[in-house]
Amino acid sequence: MTMLQVSDLTFKIGSTQILNGVDFTIEAGETVGIIGPNGSGKTTLFNCLSGFHIPSGGAIVYQDKSITKMKPYRRAELGIGRVFQNFAVFKEMTVSENIVTALESRMSPWKTFFPWSKQNKINKQKALEYLKEVGLEEKAEDKAGSLSGGQMRLLEIIRTLAFGAELFLLDEPTAGVSPKMKEDVANLIKLLMKEGKTIIVIEHDINFIHKFCKRIIVLDVGRVVLDDTPENIRTSPVLQEVYFGNGKAANG
Ligand SMILES: Nc1ncnc2c1ncn2[C@@H]1O[C@H](COP(=O)(O)OP(=O)(O)OP(=O)(O)O)[C@@H](O)[C@H]1O
Ligand SMILES: [Mg+2]
After folding, report:
1. Which of 38, 85, 202, 218 to mutate to test the pocket of ligand 1 (most atoms within 8 A of CB)?
2. Which of 135, 137, 181, 194 falls 20 to 30 Å from 60 in CA-CA distance?
3. What SS3 state is found at 212?
4. Which one, of 32, 12, 56, lies nearest residue 193 by Cα?
5. Is residue 176 in contact with ligand 1, taking CB distance under 6 Å?
6. pLDDT tens for each residue of 36-63
7. CA 247, CA 252: separation in Å to the nearest integer?
8. 42, 82, 200: which to mutate for ligand 1, most atoms within 8 A of CB?
């Protein structure tokens, strides 16, 4: 089944063309990496997919529905989960509450209205199970703001899972994360894959995405210049050109 189809997507800010006709299709259950130099339009593409930007042209179809102009919260309800390049956890809430609120957002408010309700107990239990998956159960009652950068990344991703996402848009999930934590993020992505989720991950480190992506899309100046296996991408002269061509310095 096709999960996402992006056709001739363009995006302009003022007179600056940022996306120049992006085309690709993602099948359900695929894990696809997106790489490209700084400023090539990767985050902008995610902004268009999640609804923070309305494209200037082209179309986005998600599970057979046109979502090109749909509001962000409606896309989230349909299962598009965005994890930001900068942290977005609720820092003043506890780690556990971060997950509980995501679970609650999927149910009628009446179910969790009374603090002693059965549903509240179930949600708390579930939150702990999610936290166990990423080794954060001991931090459950700590403020989320006290977590390390890497731990916040993990929390953000499992919160998106608890919210019910089917398509995960991960924007540089390992940026500024320690090598050990990078391994944890990789394991979490593998867990999402095992659960049959569809994942698009923006990443500068091709060695990192190589671990779990069978397909990589390379963006340059707002268009897809390569869409192939990691092996073919690595040895492609186009990749050399994108990163080292025109006397430009290498990025990432
Ligand atoms: N709100 C904005 N106003 C003006 N220009 C913008 C805006 N957002 C992005 N741009 C420009 O669009 C281009 C693409 O930016 P984008 O953030 O999508 O790149 P990126 O590939 O995610 O880069 P990075 O690897 O650094 O995260 C850049 O030239 C950027 O300066
Ligand atoms: Mg970016």
Report:
1. 38
2. 194
3. coil
4. 32
5. no
6. 999 999 999 999 999 999 999 999 999 9
7. 16
8. 42
Model pTM?
Answer: 0.90
- Taking Cα atoms as reference points, which of 217, 194, 250, 240 lies closest to residue 46? 217
| Among the four given CATH numbers 3.40.80.10, 3.40.50.300, 1.20.1440.230, 1.10.10.60, the one describing domain 2-87+166-247 | 3.40.50.300
Ligand 1 in contact with 47 (CB < 6 A)? Answer: no
Atom of ligand 1 nearest to the CA of 251: 25
Domain spans, the chain? 2-87+166-247, 90-146
**Identity at 119, one-letter amino acid code:** Q
pLDDT in tens, 182-239: 999 999 999 999 999 999 999 988 888 988 999 999 999 999 999 999 999 999 999 9
For residue 20, which ligand has an atom nearest its CA?
Answer: 1
Mapped onto helix, strand or coil, the DSSP state of residue 159 is helix
Q: Are strands 167-171 and 198-202 parallel, antiparallel or unpaired?
A: parallel
Q: Decide: 53 in ligand 1 pocket, CB within 6 A.
A: no
Closest ligand to residue 22's CA = 1
For residue 205, give the nearest of 226, 186, 191, 229 by alpha carbon.
Answer: 186
